[in-house]
Design a protein that fits this description.
single chain; alpha/beta; five-stranded mixed sheet; elongated
Length: 257
């Protein structure tokens, strides 16, 4: 295990840049997992670990797990607590970072699909992916969303990004138009005139579109949908947080399965 002692080492600089820059992540096709749970989750995923950075303290605490992860990593580097603090995106770094290679998305959508239309908040996107995995949603279509390899998305998803079928699309309108032959397509809206989601029959393959936090689902997507659906609300609030609305929508989609 090679030891890195300088904060100015090129590996440390590149790792920090991967954590901070979406453009650099896309250019290099690499991303960073931080923390014991996320890093060890990669052992049960399709992702390849290019290199592992770990402190001596964490090696002692998780000897077996670090050994298993090191065995499948291209390179392993021992770093100091000070370097871990420099790299960390959290206030209390655990001292482990796995730099992984991005994988091509699977094309199989399944019967229950959520489409995210311009959802930008990393915490919202991560929470939606986590909920989708927990409830049994088959896949998520991602259109102009924040980078799913953003550290905040990875943390909020609690590792679900590593396991869920996440399919980016450059043209959501074209993708949904093609899917309409086999799927019921629904756009979620905060509008009491829309059909109540509790009255929708999700027995056939379905796609539900969750819109941007501020502007909702795009008009062209609403126009091609089979129906606009809404979550009935009895209180004074006009709308729900995007991740909360997505969670309720996914629950209703899966409720009768």
């Amino acid at each position: 295990m090679e030891k890195i002692t300088s904060r100015n080492n090129h590996i440390i600089k590149d790792t920090k840049k991967l954590m901070n820059s979406s453009a650099f992540r896309q250019q290099s096709r690499l991303f960073v997992l931080e923390g014991a749970r996320l890093c060890f989750d990669v052992l049960n995923s399709v992702y390849t670990v290019e290199y592992l950075l770990v402190t001596e303290k964490l090696c002692h605490r998780y000897e077996k797990e670090v050994g298993d992860l090191a065995a499948v990593s291209g390179s392993v580097y021992l770093i100091s607590d000070e370097i871990a603090e420099k790299l960390s995106d959290t206030s209390s770094p655990q001292g482990i970072f796995a730099v992984c290679r991005m994988e091509e998305a699977a094309a199989e959508t399944g019967r229950r699909v959520i489409a995210l239309d311009n959802v930008q908040d990393p915490s919202n996107v991560g929470a939606m992916i986590r909920t989708a995995e927990a409830l049994g949603i088959d896949s998520l279509l991602l259109y102009r969303c924040c980078d799913i390899y953003n550290p905040k998305v990875l943390r909020a998803s609690m590792g679900s990004v590593l396991r869920m079928c996440l399919i980016p699309t450059e043209n959501l309108e074209a993708t949904l138009t093609e899917m309409k032959n086999d799927y019921a397509v629904y756009a979620t809206v905060p509008d009491s005139r829309a059909q109540k989601i509790v009255d929708i029959d999700f027995s056939r393959p379905s796609v539900c579109v969750i819109g941007n936090e501020a502007n909702g689902v795009e008009e062209n997507i609403k126009a091609l949908s089979h129906a606009l659906i809404t979550i009935p609300m009895g209180g004074r609030a006009e709308s729900l947080n995007a991740s909360v609305a997505a969670s309720i929508t996914m629950w209703e989609m899966m409720r009768n399965d």
